[in-house]
Structures are given as structure tokens and as C-alpha cells.
Amino acid sequence: MKFSSTDPHFGEIVQRAEQAMEAGVFPERISQGSSGSYFVKDPKGKIIGVFKPKSEEPYGHLNPKWTKYFHKVCCPCCFGRSCLVPNQGYLSEAAASLVDWKLGLDIVPKTKVVSLASETFHYNAIDRAKSRGKKYALEKVPKVGRRFHRVGLPPKVGSFQLFVEGYQEADYWLRKFEAEPLPENTRKQLQSQFERLVVLDYVIRNTDRGNDNWLIKYEKPGSEDQSEKGSEWCEPKESVIQIAAIDNGLAFPFKHPDEWRAYPFHWAWLPQAKVPVSLETRDLVLSRISDMNFVQDLCEDLYELFKTDKGFDKAMFEKQMSVMRGQILNLTQALKDGKSPIQLVQMPRVVVERSRGGGQGRVVQLSNAFTQTFHCKRPFFTSW
């Protein structure tokens, strides 16, 4: 089963975004964050997605927010996250959506790589001058203007994530739940959703998961959120809680983070992290990640995604997959042993190296440099 790039619903939403820009309804830059990211709207001005261009990532050459530029110039020794491949945040966003889909977690809003062009994106002076020149030529000398390959600003490649409505930052709801504890059945829903977040973050080794970049939607029976849409909504008999894992651009490291700057999972300090993972989550995930064929298919799907980047480095990608396979190996054991999320993150860090020409993979446990051979019927990763 492949993560198809041909998704009619997703394609329709992107098409609506393009129609909006042609009609003069342009994306709006998001003030928060350290990169150039944009709320994308439909022709009626409704937000339908979030676009994050590769060139405007925190250390991209066209990042419109100057704080990261000064960081890079004035403090190069602390520049960036040394465990991540630079300027691959947009791929990480799309890859997190792919992993979420493959594992059946359903907590990452669908995200894919697309190309968009808008006047509100950050371009250099040369691109804007070329665009003005082409438009002028098309207006004044149509025969010449029609020879141009493209009139207007060049499209930017980036991640496009569908916008989710009715959600608020997790920190907002967690504080409320602390003051007003949830009913037992609703608490179980939250715990189940939380465990899916743990699985996702651990597998992709997210280095940036605070309580401000995952969202919670809490619906009570008869609430305005459910009644305002009329016939489109049926009032549930019980409260409903859903989690949305956004901002996944700083994941898939090629090595485990350095000890002095470990980038911890901040959800590990929550009370939910002390509860052993439920049988529901175990049944959902364990049969998949313990299957070597599934793991290999996942790596191959990620390869197809990552290789589209112009700066793709196959050797570096393999290191990223070695870390991810190590995370999957730990998660498999933790689920079998009935561990809690906090016990999961305390397990020794490992990487699983791709086997070369044989049916065995090599597991490297990093805590004490211990190395052993991991036997399996089929290698985690075969040569292409």
C-alpha cells in the first residue's frame, strides 16, 4: 500500500487555493514562528491550509524573519540543530503525515509537497523585477510576452497541510483539564489520542514537540461548535476529544541529538505519560511495526518522498532511516512489555543499520557502545 500523491480531495483543495490567488485572495503570512509560513485561503477568504516554503524555512536563504539570520551570523556555533538535515523541514512535514497514515494514527492533518506562487511570499528583488518585466512585455508586446515560459513570480516548493478547525493549543486545554478533571470516558479518549501522539513523535524522533505545537479539539454534547453547522453535524451522545499533531518540520534526524541539547519530548512530563500504553493502541500499532515487511515498505515510501529534494543525499537518508528503525525497535519492545510513555523515552537509544547483501541487520545500542546482530527473515532495508 503506497501513500499516493494522487488524492482527488487534496488536489481539489490546492486547486481552490490557486483559484483564490488568481482572484486576488492571497496567502497571509503567519506572525508566529521563526520561518515564513502562510495561511492559504479559498476564493471566499476562508483558511483551508498552511503552506511552508522550503526557501523560507528558519535557515532558508529567503526566510523573511531576520532573527534566524542574525542567529546564523552572530552565533554560528549554536546554529541550527546539528542532528537534522538543513532545509528539509517541508519534507519532514509531509513525511510525518505519511507515517501517520501508514500507522493508522489519524492525528496529523494531511500534508503533501506542492508548488505555489503568490505575491505575498518572500522573493528577492531579482525575481520580482523579472516578474514585472514579463508582465509589462505581455501587456505592451503580446507576441513577445507569449514566448515567455512563465509570466509572474516563480512557484515555491513547500509543504501544504490541510487546516483544522475548532482546535486550540494543547496547553490551553491541559490547564483546563487540570482544574476541571474530565469524566472517565472522556479521559480515556484523551489518553488514547495522547498515546497516538507519543507513537508518532517517537517513531519520527520529533525534536520540537512542546505543548504549543499540538492541538486539542474538545466537543461537548450540544455545544455551539456542533450545532452551528446544522444538518452537517449530528450531536454526539458523549463528549469527543481529538488531537492534531502540527509543526512536524523538525523530525527525522540523521543521528540522535547530542547529550547537551537532547531536545526532549515535552509530553513526557504530563500525567498521561505515566500511564502504561493501552491495549487499544498496542493492537493498532504493534502488528504493523513488528512486521519487517511493513518497516521496509515504510522506508521505501519515505525514500520516494525524500529523493524529490534537489539536495537529496542517499547516504544521509540512510542514516535517518537507521535512527527511525531504532526507534521502531524500541517502541516494539515497549509495547510488548506494557511500558508507559515515560518508560519508553528512558530506553537506551539505538540505531538499526541496513543489512548489506544478507538477511541480518545490525543494531547499535548507543548508551554503552554495545553492538549486536539483529536477526530477521528479511532485511529492514534492501538496496535499490
UniProtKB/TrEMBL annotation:
* Molecular-function annotations in GO: 1-phosphatidylinositol 4-kinase activity; ATP binding
Ranges where the PI3K/PI4K catalytic domain occurs? 24-354
UniProt keyword annotations, A-Z: ATP-binding, Cell membrane, Cytoplasm, Endoplasmic reticulum, Endosome, Golgi apparatus, Kinase, Lipid metabolism, Membrane, Nucleotide-binding, Transferase
Task: Name the source's superkingdom.
Answer: Eukaryota
* GO terms under biological process: endosome organization; Golgi organization; phosphatidylinositol phosphate biosynthetic process
**Does the keyword ATP-binding feature in the UniProt annotation?**
yes
Principal location listed in the UniProt entry: membrane
Record's GO cellular component terms: cytosol; early endosome membrane; endoplasmic reticulum membrane; Golgi membrane; lysosomal membrane; plasma membrane; trans-Golgi network
PANTHER family to which the protein is assigned, alphabetical: PHOSPHATIDYLINOSITOL 4-KINASE TYPE 2-BETA (PTHR12865:SF6), PHOSPHATIDYLINOSITOL 4-KINASE TYPE-II (PTHR12865)
Q: Which InterPro entries match?
A: Lsb6/PI4K2, PI3/4_kinase_cat_dom
Protein's name according to its UniProt entry:
Phosphatidylinositol 4-kinase type 2
Q: What EC identifiers does the entry list?
A: 2.7.1.67
Q: Which organism is this entry from?
A: Electrophorus electricus
The positions making up the signal sequence are none
Gene coding for it: PI4K2B
> What are the coiled-coil residue ranges?
none
Its localization reads: Cell membrane; Cytoplasm, Cytosol; Early endosome membrane; Endoplasmic reticulum membrane
The annotated topology with respect to the bilayer is:
Peripheral membrane protein
- Please state which protein family the record places this protein in: Belongs to the PI3/PI4-kinase family. Type II PI4K subfamily.
Q: Which reaction does it catalyse?
A: a 1,2-diacyl-sn-glycero-3-phospho-(1D-myo-inositol) + ATP = a 1,2-diacyl-sn-glycero-3-phospho-(1D-myo-inositol 4-phosphate) + ADP + H(+)
